[in-house]
Amino acid sequence: MSTDGLTAAQQKMRAAGVADAAINTFTHYYGQLADGVTGTIPEDTIEPYLDPPKLADLTVDPQVAQDAFDKLVVINLNGGLGTSMGLDAAKSLLPVRDGKSFLDIIVEQVLAARRATGARLPLLFMNSFRTQADTLEVLAKYPDLPVGDLPLDFLQNKEPKLRTDDLTPVEWPADPDLEWCPPGHGDIYTALLASGVLQKLLDAGFRYASVSNSDNLGTVPSPEIAGWFASSGAPYAAELCRRTAADRKGGHLAIRKADGRLILRDTAQTPADEMDFFTDEHRHPYFHTNNLWFDLEQLARVLEERDGVLGLPLIRNEKTVDPSDKTSTPVYQIESAMGAAIEVFEGASAIVVDRSRFLPVKATSDLMLVRSDAYRLTDDFALVRDVEAAPLITLASEPYKLVGDFDRRFPQGVPSLREARSLDIRGDWTFGADVTVRGDAVLGEEGGTVPDGTVVES
Fold first, then answer.
1. Nearest 5°: phi and psi at 91?
2. Torsion angle of alpha carbons 236, 241, 242, 245, nearest 10°?
3. Are residues 155 and 7 part of one domain?
4. What is the pLDDT of residues 183-213, one digit of tens each?
5. What is the Cα–Cα distance from 360 to 212, expressed in whole angstroms?
6. Considering only Cβ atoms within 10 Å of each terminal Cβ, which end of the chain, N or C, has fewer?
7. Smallest Cα–Cα separation from 82: which of 93, 91, 73?
């Protein structure tokens, strides 16, 4: 191990006010990195997870569901900036429907669930140091949102990026913020502990947590799943969906041969020459939605037993210190995935849910879809598909990748997609008002303007 590199990294974290629990967790992973651990999970070490329980096949007692919902806290991961879509603020501030952002819709979903059930249902956001201020400014519009003295957010930790040549903290005077990175969403457990929020939730009588990404508007608070989770007695559970060809990049659960434990495998943990196994939706038929449930009491117990270091599998992410400059210093970012905690908890489980609970917006093609009339916002602020099957949207990268450029191509709003099976836009097209897409439509590479009232069809 590079003692000098580790010491320098620890000192840098302490000087920046990073919590001891986060420094201890970083130290744990640094040792693995220095020992050459890559975090890869070869196919011959696992067996496919073929028969998880399905929510559609179960009956949940309504009283059990209500009791569990009364003890539930909703947590949203909100540390992302959406840089891949050209954003420089919290991705959750992006307008989605009717002038409402992801953040607005998430809040309204929780408030509607409170009105319907009478549950306290706190909503907490795990922010990064880049998203906290903007997020709290928006949340101030909702005076009824706070529950007791619980905070509305807690901060994700940060750690230094490490040079790949000697594992010392990288220096980048041109923009010192780029010397730091988040530790991946696996940091949620350390952040809950270090912030004191975990203990506050337990002291206030909360027992269960439901966690999802802030860009997934499908995770409407669910008494039914809360009731199933409480009844199962499991300390931890993941929501899964049936895989299709469109989900080949999503992580999946598997059974580790060595001990029979459920584990999570992501693309970054798959050997490059075994990606054909990873992407085979028949071999690994369910994907991990990153919607999680865990027992707060069990989490506190395991963290205490492990001195605050949960010990999730390492993800070694190779980057450059300035992501926009591929010639800048090569670095490692030490990360972990929150879903990997499934292997830590004895008796952890999973449940297959309806596809409606997985509605992420990772690219402008997803944004176009959820802004269209193929979806509608219900009275309880659930964003639901309003057609039999969502059309497949393919957008030319250069004109549409960044949100600002995308919005300029649709000054009157996105076209009607209710009658579309697919839309493939290959060139730079700007759309007028009241455009309708039907069937399998293609717009060619020549680009141009789609006039008001046009029907684009096969």
1. -60, -30
2. -120
3. yes
4. 999 999 999 999 999 999 999 999 999 999 9
5. 10
6. C
7. 91
370 lies in the same domain as 350: no
In a shared domain, residues 17 and 113: yes
Q: For residues 194 and 11, give the distance between their C-alpha atoms in angstroms, rounded to a whole number.
A: 18
User: In the predicted model, is pLDDT for residue 1 greater than 60?
Assistant: no
Alpha helices in 176-222 (DSSP H): 188-195, 197-203
Which two structure tokens, joined as six digits, stand for 395? 């957008």
The percent of residues in the chain predicted with pLDDT above 90, rounded, is 89
Sign of CA dihedral 158, 161, 167, 169: negative
Specify whether 402 is located in the same domain as 341: no
**Is 413's pLDDT higher than 70?**
yes
Structure tokens belonging to residue 47: 């067996």
- Among 357, 383, 417, identify where a domain stops: 357
Report pLDDT digits (tens) over 362-373. Answer: 999 999 999 999
| d(C-alpha 315, C-alpha 269), whole Å | 7
- CA dihedral sign, ordered 5, 11, 17, 18: positive
> Do 392 and 258 sit in the same domain of this protein?
no
| CATH number, domain with residue 280 | 3.90.550.10
Alpha-carbon distance of 20 to 425, in angstroms, equals 50
**Do residues 131 and 81 make contact, with C-beta atoms less than 8 angstroms apart?**
yes
Clarify whether residues 134 and 36 are in a common domain: yes
Phi, psi angles (nearest 5°) of residue 386: -110, 15
- CATH code of 435's domain: 2.160.10.10
Residue in 292, 101, 110, 83 with CA at minimum distance from that of residue 215: 101
Mean confidence (pLDDT) of the chain: 94
Give the N- to C-terminal CA distance of the chain in Å, as an integer. Answer: 61
Residue appearing with tokens 């319907």 = 116
Given 330, 357, 384, which residue is the final one in a domain?
Answer: 357
What domain count does the chain have? 2
Residues 59 and 95 in one domain: yes
